[in-house]
């Protein structure tokens, strides 16, 4: 079961569920009639299709933006959401000699820092072929992440990690936040993202399984330290294997966070 924090994060964070628009670009051949002029979505999950230009050419196809207004899951990691912000704070402290609290306040007030986030819309299971449901719920289906009993309507949803899009963080206000994943589910989400985009080469999994002599059922990411990353491999015989990847590089500077009200 998905676990959620007792109250949503006070800042935009990885694993937040927020009511927001999400857009995918499709060919005009794939949809019937774009809205012109576009009308706003009439309900959650409603899709609006808008032609982006009037005169397609041989080199430039007719493109339609299909936008859905629905709960979205924030995929961007926390360090990505505040990368520019942290660099600005460090610069203000190191180069300008500004006190840390003042540097955080000044950087928090700059809306140009970290302007985008990657999100994926929540979909009801009815949008996904039925033969995939069991694999999604069990976590075995690559490219999907299940969210059970989402606060608000207590509905069960799924995200297709192949339908991600980039949106302005100004479209992800605190006032529209529905829920935030708890630590265990956030760690599972990070694993599913890595599985979908970085561990598609299943020969690596096969090599690990050959080494340990058992099938790997799932991997659990452990909290990061400054010198290493670690995962727990769950084997089909019930055993657990602890793997560590040590970082042979200089220690990263400590991350700071922006003031909570800066993006509301």
Short description:
By secondary structure, the protein is of the alpha+beta class. The chain has one domain: SH3 type barrels (Roll), CATH 2.30.30.110.
Largest sheet at a glance? 6 strands, antiparallel
Mean of all residue-level pLDDT scores: 85
Shape: globular
Radius of gyration: 21 Å
Note the quaternary state here: single chain
Uncertain runs with pLDDT below 50, 5 residues or more? none
The appropriate CATH architecture is Roll
Write the element-wise H/E pattern from the N-terminal end onward: EEEHHHEEHEEEEHHEEE
Give an overview of the whole structure.
The structure is a single chain. The chain contains six helices and twelve strands. The protein is of the alpha+beta class. Helix 2 packs across helix 3. The chain is 22% helix and 30% strand.
């Amino acid at each position: 079961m998905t676990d959620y924090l007792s109250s949503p994060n006070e800042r935009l964070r990885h694993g937040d569920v927020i009511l927001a628009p999400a857009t995918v670009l499709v060919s005009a051949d794939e949809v019937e009639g774009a809205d012109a002029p576009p009308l706003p979505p009439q309900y959650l999950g409603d899709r609006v299709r808008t032609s982006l230009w009037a005169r397609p050419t041989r080199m430039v196809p007719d493109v339609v933006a299909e936008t859905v207004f629905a709960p979205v899951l924030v995929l961007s990691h926390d360090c990505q959401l505040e990368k520019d912000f942290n660099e600005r704070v460090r610069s203000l402290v190191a180069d300008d000699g500004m006190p840390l609290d003042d540097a955080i306040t000044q950087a928090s007030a700059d809306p140009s820092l970290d302007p985008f986030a990657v999100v994926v819309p929540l979909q009801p299971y009815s949008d996904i072929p039925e033969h995939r449901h069991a694999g999604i719920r069990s976590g075995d289906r690559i490219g999907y992440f299940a969210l059970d009993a989402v606060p608000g309507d207590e509905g069960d949803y799924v995200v297709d990690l192949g339908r991600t899009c980039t949106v302005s963080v100004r479209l992800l206000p605190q006032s529209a936040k529905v829920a935030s994943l708890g630590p265990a589910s956030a760690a599972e989400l990070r694993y599913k993202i890595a599985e979908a985009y970085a561990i598609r080469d299943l020969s690596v999994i096969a090599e690990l399984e050959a080494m340990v002599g058992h099938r790997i059922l799932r991997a659990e990411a452990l909290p990061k330290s400054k010198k290493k990353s670690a995962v727990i491999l769950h084997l089909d015989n019930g055993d657990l294997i602890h793997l560590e990847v040590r970082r042979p590089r200089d220690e990263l500077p400590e991350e700071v966070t922006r003031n909570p009200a800066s993006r509301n």
